[in-house]
Amino acid sequence: MIRKHADMEGEVREHMRGGPGSVTFKHLFKKEEFTANVRFCAMGVIPPGAGIGPHTHEAEDEVYIITRGSGILDDGRTQSRVSAGDAILTGNGESHAIYNDGEEPLELIAVIACYPEPKQP
């Protein structure tokens, strides 16, 4: 399946997860389009001064791939500078937040994959 950029559904999330400003997403594919258990797959743009506040992922993993710009990633223990080309993996109840402290938009791809349901005996 190919989805052209012009056909991607967009949305703006204000104060996402309690973070400052707004974050814009373009959905690459919707949850219903996957055969695998993926609940989110989008390109995000975080303008200067904005961010996604701290949050955890229970029973799922989230991957950020930074495609442009830079910012600060807080993994609940440390803060690290991330920039274009970096990849971040979080999940299993771990916390993370990301903030654009730069002067250009921070762009990323975000994918959230859910763990399989435990098999019943």
Characterize the structure shown.
The protein has 121 residues and is mainly β. The protein has a single domain, classed as Jelly Rolls (Sandwich), CATH 2.60.120. The protein is built from no helices and ten strands. The protein has a six-stranded antiparallel β-sheet, with no helix packed on it. Strands 4-9-6-7 form a four-stranded antiparallel β-sheet, with no helix packed on it. The mean pLDDT is 95.
What name goes with the CATH superfamily?
Jelly Rolls
Q: SS-based structural class?
A: mainly beta
Order of strands side by side in the largest beta sheet?
A: 1-2-3-10-5-8
The figure for the number of domains is: 1
Instruction: Give the biggest sheet.
Output: 6 strands, antiparallel
- Name the quaternary structure: single chain
Radius of gyration: 15 Å
Tally of contiguous helical segments? 0
